[in-house]
Design goal:
By secondary structure, the protein is of the alpha+beta class. Helices cover 56% and strands 15% of the residues. The protein is built from 15 helices and twelve strands. The chain has a five-stranded antiparallel beta sheet, sandwiched between helices. The longest helix is centred in the middle third of the chain and has 56 residues. The chain starts with a helix and ends in a 6-residue tail after the last strand.
Length: 520
């Protein structure tokens, strides 16, 4: 009985029983009231007929009244017997004086108890009877209904009373039959209500029990068990009522909580790795600086050339530490959403043109060339001279030119670092239609012919401190954060960045942005 299912089934059954019993009692009382009213109407009609017939007869003495009354009663009962012969033949009609003395009896005489009946006393006191008086006959053998009325006749000084006694056995039997039928229906109803209540309670308690189990698992820290298997839950059809919706929302909450915990654990792991990487990246230049400074303090200053070399190394490591701290601060601002991006219509072609022009001198030191991709439309070479040709078209996006400059400079300097001498680096910019959204977008391509990136490394190169070749990257002065910053900035502009590369053949970085308008 402790289960909510049984409690609900019992409550449902009790409710049905209470309703059926209430309806049964109402039906019984309505049936009895109707039958009693019918008997009252018949007795009243009989009395009125008797009085009407006696009134038209010219009776002059009181001695004539009982005889005339008997004749009228006999003829009247024979006349009405056709409608209800059984009851009419059993009906007893009595004539009594004003004082209650029996003057005529069609059947057996009245006993002393009958003559002192409540209805006779009320009639003598002038109280009109509005309903029949049903009681057990004083001989204890049957149930009868009494009707009494007072009447007067023309020329007779004293009023008389008519007592009509109607046997109620037939009505009582019919009433008992109705009670038996109602009890039988109630028993059947209890059985049906119990079965229906069980299934209804099961359907209601099932999600409650499921939620209880999941909440217990959730409270004990078993998040995966509480969340359940999404594939199995897809095959389950939840109820469409409030409990079903509650179960759906609880599952969603459990999945979200489980995902959040997994994400928090992943973030905690990343944070630990991040701290370890930062510590390692800072420890290397600090160790180098410390060792070179200690060497200088121990007498390395006697050799001016060695001193200059040591100080150059210290200066380079200091610059590397400064770059690392700067990149860390930049990422910290982005993670805390404090990085400011002032978006306005910006021509990406001119941002690229400016970056290429400023880095051309650095590239020439290695014999490298920075140039537009062959499929780019630029101004004629005859009008260019030594400078980089201008693009022939505008490529407008809503962006921050300073932030975009960070992205392209990082990609261009990486291309220069990892490309061999006397190689070319090609930059292209195109207007295309995004196949997924159907909207125009601007795509920037930066292509080199360097060492390339292995396929297994391509998914991770935008992670913080991830290096394909750690020793080579550190030797070239990289912090391992440049591509991570480039990705963050690109996403702040609702864009995306990805790489296509083949080991030993070079890499092509693509940066894509939604196209804007110069009027925005």
């Amino acid at each position: 009985m402790g289960s909510i299912k049984w409690k609900m089934a019992t409550l449902y059954s009790l409710l049905v029983v209470a309703v059926m019993l209430s309806c049964g009692v109402l039906i019984i009382f309505a049936f009895r009231s109707t039958e009693y009213k019918k008997v009252y109407t018949e007795c009243e009609y009989t009395a009125e007929r008797i009085v009407d017939v006696l009134s038209v007869q010219e009776l002059t003495s009181e001695e004539e009244i009982p005889k005339a009354f008997g004749e009228v009663v006999t003829s009247l009962l024979i006349e009405t017997g056709g409608t209800d012969a059984a009851q009419s033949s059993e009906k007893s009609v009595y004539l009594l004086s004003e004082e209650g003395k029996l003057l005529y009896s069609r059947r057996k005489d009245l006993s002393v108890q009958d003559l002192s009946s409540r209805v006779l006393i009320q009639a003598r006191n002038g109280q009109a009877q509005t309903e029949i008086y049903v009681h057990t006959a004083y001989d204890g053998t049957s149930t009868v209904a009494d009707y009494v009325t007072m009447f007067s006749l023309p020329g007779i000084d004293h009023p008389y009373m008519i007592l009509i006694r109607q046997p109620m056995e037939t009505i009582q039997k019919n009433l008992q039959s109705v009670i038996y039928i109602i009890l039988l229906i109630t028993l059947i109803g209890i059985l049906v209500a119990g079965i229906m209540g069980y299934f209804v309670a099961s359907s209601i308690s099932r999600p409650i029990l499921k939620l209880t189990k999941k909440s217990q698992e959730l409270a004990s820290g078993k998040l995966e068990e509480a969340a359940g298997d999404p594939e199995e839950e897809k095959n389950e059809v939840p109820e469409s009522d409030e409990l079903g919706q509650l179960e759906i929302h609880f599952d969603e909450m459990a999945h979200e909580l489980s995902s959040s915990i997994i994400e928090l654990k992943a973030m905690e792991k990343m944070q630990k790795e991040f701290v370890a990487n930062v510590s390692h990246e800072l420890r290397t230049p600090i160790t180098t600086i410390k060792s070179y400074v200690e060497t200088l303090l121990d007498g390395g200053t006697d050799d001016p050339e060695m001193t200059r070399h040591f100080l150059t190394v210290v200066d380079q490591e200091s610059d590397r530490m400064t770059a690392l701290v700067t990149d860390l601060l930049e990422l910290s601002k982005m993670d805390s959403h404090q990085a400011t991006v002032s978006k306005k219509p910006t021509d990406l072609a001119m941002v690229l043109y400016r970056d290429l022009s400023e880095l051309m001198f650095e590239a020439r030191k290695k014999g490298q060339t920075l140039q537009w991709a062959p499929d780019m439309e630029t101004e004629p070479e005859a009008d260019v001279g030594e400078r980089l040709p201008y693009p022939m078209d505008e490529f407008i996006i809503l962006g921050d030119s300073h932030r975009l400059d960070q992205v392209f400079r990082n990609l261009l300097t990486n291309a220069m670092k990892y490309s061999p001498e006397n190689s070319g680096i090609y930059v292209g910019i195109y207007r295309v239609i995004n196949e997924e959204t159907g909207e125009n977008e601007i795509r920037v391509k930066i292509e080199d012919h360097g060492i390339g990136i292995a396929k297994e490394d391509q998914e991770n190169i935008f992670d913080r401190f991830y290096r394909v070749d750690k020793a080579r990257s550190r030797a070239l002065g990289g912090t391992g954060l440049g591509l991570a910053i480039a990705k963050e900035i690109t996403e702040l502009h609702d864009g995306r960045i990805y790489v296509e590369s083949e080991l030993g053949k070079g890499s092509t970085f693509w940066v894509c942005f939604p196209e804007g308008s110069a009027d925005e």
